[in-house]
Amino acid sequence: MALSSVEDSAVKVIVRLRPMNEMEKSIGVTPAVSASSENNTVTVLKGQGLTKAVYSFDNVFSGFATQEEVFQESLAHIINDCIKGYTSTILAYGQTGTGKTHTMEGDLSSPFTYGVIPRSMDVIFRALKKKNIVSSRVTCSYLEIYNEDLSDLLAYDNSKKLDILNGRDGTCCRGLVEKEVKNRDDVIELVHHAVRSRKIGETKMNKKSSRSHCIFTVHVYSQSKSLDNSIVDYHGKLNLVDLAGSENAKNASGDESRKSVDGNARERERKNINQSLLTLGRVISAVKDRSLGEKVIRVPYRDSKLTRILQDALGGRSKTAIIATVSPSEMAVSESLSTLTYAQAASSIINKPITSSHHVSKMVSEGALSNGNHSVDQWFELESKLKHMEAQVEEAQAMLSRKHQQQQLLVDKADKAKAELEKMEDSLLKTQAKNTELEGLVERQNSAMDILATSLKQSEDSLIRTNAILKATKHTENNLTSEGQLLIHAVKESIQDGDDLHRLLIETKEDEIDRKEASKTFQHTTIASLGEVTSAIDIILKEEEEFCKSLTDDAEQYSATERQSLERIVTTLKEIHSNVKALSQKVKIFSVGEGGIALTVDSTVDIVHSELSKERETIVSGKDSLNLSTQETKQKLDDLSMKIMKFNSRNAEDSNCILDSLISKIDVTKQQIVDVASAIVESTLEISS
Prior knowledge:
three-stranded antiparallel β-sheet; disordered N terminus; 17% strand; eleven-stranded mixed β-sheet; alpha+beta; 689 residues
C-alpha cells in the first residue's frame, strides 16, 4: 500500500440560481437575487433602499443553465479524480425548495434531465472501459440521516442498527449495505428504490420537501496497468450528499391548523434539520479559520452525525465541491444571504486530498522470463516475500491506525480539557474584568439614573405644561375657529346688511326725491287751491253780502209793501168795519150763529198773521243758515290748511329721522367691519406665534 500526497486543494463552490416557479409568478413575487454566469457573481438586493450585495464564486449558473452544463463545467473533473483513487465529495446545500434534489438526482425519466448521480455514474463507467483498466468493481450505498438517526435506504430491513466509526481510510458507517452495480441503469434502479423509502413532507415552500440528509456513496475499485507494465490498485470513493433544506418556522410550516402528533413530528424534524445545518456552518467557519492560519481550539465534527461523516470533505483528505442552491424570490432573501455567506466561507477551506493506490507487481513478459538473469523460483520467492512484506505493512498500518486513533482520542481529550481549562481561565478573567466593569457601570448607571430621574421629572413637568399649553392652544384654536366662523358669518351678514342698507338708502333717497317733488307739487296745488278757495270765499262773501243786502232790501221792500197792503187792508178793514158797523145791525143776525161772518174774518186775520210770521222766520233762519254755512266753510278751510302744514312738518321730520337712522346704521356697520378685521388679524397673529 502506498499513500501519495498531492498539493493542497481548496473547496470548490458552485452557486445555482433556480428560476421563478409558478406559485411565485402567480402571486407576483419580485426577484431579489440575480446571477451572472459570465462574471461568476451573484447579486442580492435587499430592503427598501435596495442594499446591494455581490458575491463571487468558482462557478455561477442562472436559471437558464441545464443539468448538462452544470455537471460538465464544474463537476466532471472531480468525478475523474475519484477513478484515480481520490475521495471526492459533492454537497448540495440551500434552503428548502431551491432545487437541491433536482440538482443531485434530477428527473430520472429522461436522460436530458438527469442529475449529478446518474451523470457521475456515466463518467465512471466510461472511464472504467479504457484499455489500461485491467479489472474494476463498483459498489453503491445510500445512507439517510433523519432526526439524527441513521437509516440504510438500500436495505430491505431498516431495523438494523448503524454505527459511525473512524476507519483506516477515514470515517465509515458500519453495517451499511453496499450493492454492486454494473451500469447506469442499475444505479437508477437503486435510486428509485431509495426514493420510495426516503422521508419527505409538504411545506409552504415545497410540496415534496426532503426531511432528511441523504449520502449516496460510490466505491470504485480498479486495477490499472502503468507504463512499466505494473498493476496498480485504486480505491476511489465518491460521496454525493443531498442535504435537507434549511427552514424557518414562519415560512416552512405546511398546515398551521394541524396541531396533532403529525404536526409535532414535523416541528421536531425542522429543529433537527436546522440543528445539524447549524453545526455544519460552525464546522465550515472553524475549518475556514484554520485554513487561514488562525488558531482554532476545536472543530465540532462530533456535534452531529452529518458533520462526523463529512469530516474528510471539510478540511480532510477529500476533494470537495459544494453546490449552493438559492431562490430568486424576495420572500427568501434572508435565507439566500445566509446560504451565500456559508458558501463563501466554505470557499476558504483548504483540503489535503490523498490518493489511495496499491502497487501490486510488475508484468513479466516471455522475453523477461527467457532473459536468464533470474529464475522462476527466484521470482516466486520475491513475490512471496513481497506479499509477506505487504501483509506486514498492512498490519503495521492497521496497528498504527489504531494507535493513531487512540492517540488522537487522548489528544482530543487533552485538547478538550486544555481548551476547557483555558476557556474557564479566560472566563474567570473575563468575569473578574466584567465584575469590575459592572461595578463601575453600576455607579455610572446610578448617577445616570439620578440624572435621568431629574431629567424625567423635568420632562414630566415640561410634558404637563406642554400638554396644558397644547390643550389651551387647542381650546383657543377651537374658540378662535368658532369666533372666526361667527365673525366671518357676521361680516357676511354685515356686508349683506350694508348692501341692504345701501339699497334701502338709494330707495329712500329716491322716495325722498319723489316725496319732495310730490310735496312741492302738493304745496303748489294747495296754494293754488287755497287761492281759488279764498277767491271763491271772497266771491261767496260778496255774494252773501249782496244776497243779505238784497234780502234786506227785499225784506224792507216787502215789509213796506205789506205795510202798505196792511194799511190798505186796515183802511179797507176800517172802511169795511165802518161799513160793517153800519151794516152790523143788518148782518148781526147772520154773524151771531155758526159760520157767521165774524168768525170768518177772525180766521182770515189769524191766517194772514201766521203766514207773515212764517215768512219772517224763514228770512231770519235763512240769514242764520247762511252765516253758519259760511263759518263752517271757513273753519273747514282753516282745518285743511293746518293739516297741510302739519303734513309738511311731519314729512320733513320723518325724512330727517330716516336719513339720520340710515347714517347711524352705516356708521355702526363700518365700525363692525373694522372690529371684525382687527379681531381676525389679532387671531392670526396669536396662532402664528
